[in-house]
Amino acid sequence: MNPRRKMWIFHGANSSVRLSSTWTQWCLRYAAVLSLLCSPVRTDDACPYSCVCARDSGTVTCRDGEDTEVPGDIPEWTSSLILRGRNISTLQRGAFMSNGSELDMTILSLSYNGIQAIEPYAFLGLPRLRLLDLSHNQLELISSRAFHGLPDLRSLYLNNSVLPSAAAQLSEALDTQTLQNLHRLELAGNRLRSIPMLRLDIYNLHALVLVNNSIESIGWENVTNLYQQTRLRVYLALNPFRCNCGLEAFYYWLKNSSQCADSGHLLCSEPEAKRGVPVEMLRGDDVDCMNENLEAVSYVFLGLVLALIGLVFLMVLYLNRGGIKRWLNNIRDACRDQMEVYHYRYEQDSDPRLANVAV
Ligand SMILES: *[C@@H]1O[C@H](CO)[C@@H](O)[C@H](O)[C@H]1NC(C)=O
Ligand SMILES: *[C@@H]1O[C@H](CO)[C@@H](O)[C@H](O)[C@H]1NC(C)=O
Ligand SMILES: *[C@@H]1O[C@H](CO)[C@@H](O)[C@H](O)[C@H]1NC(C)=O
Ligand SMILES: *[C@@H]1O[C@H](CO)[C@@H](O)[C@H](O)[C@H]1NC(C)=O
Ligand SMILES: *[C@@H]1O[C@H](CO)[C@@H](O)[C@H](O)[C@H]1NC(C)=O
Ligand SMILES: *[C@@H]1O[C@H](CO)[C@@H](O)[C@H](O)[C@H]1NC(C)=O
């Protein structure tokens, strides 16, 4: 029950002042009528506990309360609800249903609430919602049916909110036909390594913000899908692009589609030699897989040729082993003869008596 809802308690009956019985009866009846009028009926001016309500603009703002839940008594006239700085760990099914009925709310801002989990159908009962801001939370559990029942949603902000372990769950959750009117999806600062969407043709996307993530490259399959979304503008600054031949399809998309709205700000982070170089400023050769492959192929080819030459050399040696043996023998014989001649001469020269005898 709402703690602020006023309870009318009649104190008159046991009053110390003695009154005539008719007066008491009249008072009792009056109090009964009053309590009937006031107690269970929700007043239109009700504003949830610890929130500020601006009826004119239809805005309800609830900041930094100690509450760990979504207020249960959101006024029917609310068009914008801003909850911030609360410790809401889980958004439960139908968390924004006001006493079981739908709300005409169009803007729901839930940034900085420490939200960790979104349960299935958490946003049930908000059929007119156009903007949902879930930035700066710590989402680690996102149901695949988290965003069901939001047919009018145009902007979804999830900046700095999705933990790396929940990236795959996010893809599943976004893969729903009910987001068919989604115009703008912001996913900055989530350490994402790829576009967290399985397909792009189920939305009506005009802006996809992926700045400050961990995207190193976008493959040709995704590039093909991007080309098909002619209205779409993609923002990709502050990602660590790996500028090798894997970037080829993306490089040409960047060069000739003009779909990347911040293309001038994309920088290479690898390889070392190209760090800080704008991706746009690369030459076709830098991302040419043919080139890179040719280089690799030529090294392999050179190695093969060298190996072949070595093999031929060994083969020649082997086939000629008879001749080589003979040749070696000849050399040895020649050496021996030579040695013998020397030996003989030495013996002759070294004995002076023999020399004298000879003379
Ligand atoms: C948030 O609430 C949870 C329990 O629901 C508690 O464990 C946690 O310490 C709270 N965090 C903060 C910052 O208040
Ligand atoms: C809440 O809804 C129930 C029926 O669903 C109704 O009886 C009750 O009066 C409603 N309370 C308020 C405050 O609207
Ligand atoms: C999300 O990011 C966009 C642009 O990067 C910004 O306009 C928007 O205000 C951000 N939202 C929050 C809640 O920080
Ligand atoms: C990038 O995102 C990280 C969180 O992933 C955040 O801490 C950092 O401030 C962001 N940097 C910029 C320049 O927005
Ligand atoms: C991006 O590519 C991956 C695999 O390469 C694929 O699973 C995914 O559906 C693609 N997403 C888009 C939006 O093209
Ligand atoms: C875009 O780049 C590709 C290279 O893959 C090229 O074949 C194509 O002609 C280019 N398109 C335009 C419109 O320049």
From TrEMBL:
Coiled coil: none annotated. Residues 1-43 form the signal peptide. The keyword Membrane applies. GO terms for cellular component: plasma membrane. It comes from the Eukaryota. Residues 239-290 form the LRRCT domain. InterPro entries: Cys-rich_flank_reg_C (IPR000483), Leu-rich_rpt (IPR001611), Leu-rich_rpt_typical-subtyp (IPR003591), LRR_dom_sf (IPR032675), LRRNT (IPR000372), Wnt_signaling_inhibitor (IPR052286). This is LRRCT domain-containing protein. It comes from Pleuronectes platessa.
